[in-house]
Amino acid sequence: MSDESKRLEQAREFWARPPRQRTLTQLLETYQTGSFGPEQTATVLAERHQALGESASHSIISRDDAAMSMLATAQQQLKATATSLPLGGVPVSIKDLFDETGMTTLAGSRALAENQPADQDAVALSRLKAAGILHAGRTSMSEFAFSGLGLNPHVGTPPNPFDAERITGGSTSGGAASVAFGLAAATLGSDTGGSLRIPAAFCGLTGFKPSQASVPGDGAFPLSPSLDCIGPIAPNVACCRTLWEVLSGEVADATPLTRPLTLLVPESELVSEVDADVAADFAALLEQLEGMGVRLQRAPVEAIEAAYTINQRGGLVIPEAAAVHHELLAAHEAQYDPLIAERLNGGRDITASEYLARLWPRTAIQQRFAQQVQDVDAVLMPTVAMRAPRRDLLEQDGALFAQLNKRALRNTSVFNYLDASSISIPAPAPQNEEPLGLMLSRPQGQDVALLRVAETLEALLAR
């Protein structure tokens, strides 16, 4: 067997592994040792896309194999340069709402098809390119990012990696699927009400929603400008930390915590009103964590309750999204997913006084949240109140779609209103093959501290 054949076989073996066995650290170490390089990665990802059929085409809807191969070859020939870049040769997929030079940003819709191509990359994408990524393709998403379930009738809905009949969650649906299926090492997505954390939870991955100000949103098609955040989905916390450092320009302290964690489990509807299997797995995990020395506090958090109450009244997303889409929806409603159009039309009747009544208390509630959790390492909750539902039921029943979409978003969206730093990590679930998403959150601006806590908890769960 030739050296090239050996490198290709090693690349095929690597990309066939489960996500947690093909982290960014492992990939970059493999490149450095010469087992295989970016060129073999590009070849293998093209093979996997072909072999996976609809699972791939419904996850990554647009890709340029020739461009990826050319860049990978250049990086492999200039190995010293490639390995000096933080993401040199790392394939990252891109959510379809980020501007990319020469391409029309569709945001998962047909309504933008006549728009002019972008004349520059979104800031987040340009930073990833400067860090050396291989562009693994643009991913499917809920139309205009306006759903936590991830359905898209225009380009297809990606299957859940644990059960093809179930959804991945949204709105970063194709991004999560691309990582789960070994079509990318990580994905760039957005989170307005849970769009990184929900698909991460449903697909056994890690999804990080940083504080809004830490990553510029310039060049990303908006949903709710007050809430939109940019972040990654990846195999583990360290991968998300590496990507966030590139996206934000900040440096995170990766030193693990050596003292016992103190985590606050809110006593509220958000934790108590979850499906029975989620509740059972969460309770078992809490017992396991206490046995490992984690200190758990159980108490109501008034700021969380206040944010939840505002979100239950409709929050900020629907009125802001209705404003963003006011003219486009009037001109092109027939081209929208009917389920998305119905939600947007519902925002037209919200009065300015009602919107402001939801918006004006926000800063004060954020400040109270910071005060009320200052003595703990993070708030701990199930990421989603349910397991991933079946796709066919959602497609056939608009009322069920609306009910489960609200239920999927109820836990995560609270922390968008608070502009908290929030992350979902997968945890073994005693009663289920599909892991349970555990959500850790800290107040606005505490991204570095949250990542340290999440890595510490992740290490405990891996014992």
Name the shape in a single word.
Answer: globular
User: Biggest sheet, strands in spatial order?
Assistant: 1-3-2-4-6-5-10-11-9-7-8
Helix content range: 40-55%
Question: Low-confidence segments, ≥5 residues, pLDDT <50?
Answer: none
* CATH top level class name: Alpha Beta
What is the structural class? alpha/beta
Count of spatially separate domains = 1
CATH arch. level architecture: Alpha-Beta Complex
* Residue-averaged pLDDT: 95
What is the radius of gyration computed over CA atoms, rounded to a whole number of angstroms?
Answer: 21 Å
Give the percentage of residues in beta strands.
5-15%
**CATH third-level topology:** Amidase signature (AS) enzymes
Distance between termini? Answer: 39 Å
How many H/I helical runs?
21
Query: What's the main sheet like?
Result: 11 strands, mixed
Secondary structure: number of strands: 11
CATH homology group: Amidase signature (AS) domain
What this model shows, in words?
This protein has one domain (1-301, 367-391, 405-463): Amidase signature (AS) domain (Amidase signature (AS) enzymes, Alpha-Beta Complex). The protein is globular, with a radius of gyration of 21 Å. Helix content is 46%, strand content 13%. α13 (302-312) runs antiparallel to α18. It contains 21 helices and 11 strands. The protein has helices at residues 3-15, 24-33, 38-52, 54-57, 65-77, 79-84, 123-130, 173-180, 197-203, 237-248, 269-272, 276-291, 302-312, 317-324, 326-332, 338-346, 352-359, 362-372, 391-396, 398-417, 447-461, and strands at residues 60-62, 91-95, 134-139, 186-191, 206-209, 229-234, 262-266, 295-299, 378-382, 421-427, 436-442. The chain has 463 residues and is α/β, with parallel strands linked by helices.
